[in-house]
Amino acid sequence: MSKRLTVKPKSEGTLVLDAQGLSLHVDGDEGMRARIEVAQQSGRRVALSALTPLEVRRTGAAAKRLRFLLSRFDVKPVNDAVMDAAATLLDASGLDGHECLVDALVVATAALCTPPVLLVTSDTSHIPALCKAAGDLPGAPTVKIVHA
């Protein structure tokens, strides 16, 4: 009897959720559920900044669902590399750190993930400028936007 080798699927990049993407998923949005399922089936990791759950706080049954979903995703810490990248993004985009700090940290988190990177967001003002500025980071990562 021969042993069958199992091959771990090759990473096909990362799908990063911002607060709107995570919120839709927690609230049971079928489109977001399907998008995440397709990403996972294709070998894409689903990730988010450790700050994102703070933006999406829930209570009761929704809080339990949020905790369960977070256990299935790659929650990235806000470390020195992310903070340095966020500062570069703010400088390169000309955006205000006070107003755009969380968005900059989310895009910095995405930029440091395994490419290709797709960022699920509904933001049409700050996130596109920050994603464009990601090209100024070491390695010139590309963060593509997927509208929630």
Main sheet, how many strands, which sense, barrel? Answer: 5 strands, parallel
The overall strand count is: 5
Which regions are unreliable across 5 or more consecutive residues at pLDDT < 50? none
Work out the helicity level.
40-55%
SSE ordering: EHHEHHEHHEHE
Q: Mean pLDDT score, rounded?
A: 93
Radius of gyration of CA atoms, rounded to a whole number: 16 Å
Overall outline: globular
- Sheet with the most strands: spatial strand order: 3-2-1-4-5
- In whole angstroms, the N-to-C terminal distance is 49 Å
**Which percent band covers the strand fraction?**
5-15%
Total helical segments: 7
Class based on secondary structure composition and strand pairing:
alpha/beta
Walk me through this protein's architecture:
It is a single chain. The protein is of the alpha/beta class and 148 residues long. The protein has 7 helices and 5 strands, in the order βααβααβααβαβ. A 5-stranded parallel sheet has the order 3-2-1-4-5, with helices on both faces. Helix 5 (80-93) crosses helix 6.
Task: List its traits.
five-stranded parallel beta sheet, single chain, alpha/beta, globular
Q: Could you write a compact summary of the structure shown?
A:
This protein is an alpha/beta fold and 148 residues long. It has 7 helices and 5 strands.
Write the layout of secondary structure elements.
Layout: E1 14-17, H1 19-26, H2 30-41, E2 45-49, H3 52-55, H4 60-72, E3 74-76, H5 80-93, H6 97-111, E4 117-121, H7 126-133, E5 143-147
Helix pairs in contact: 5-6, 5-7, 6-7
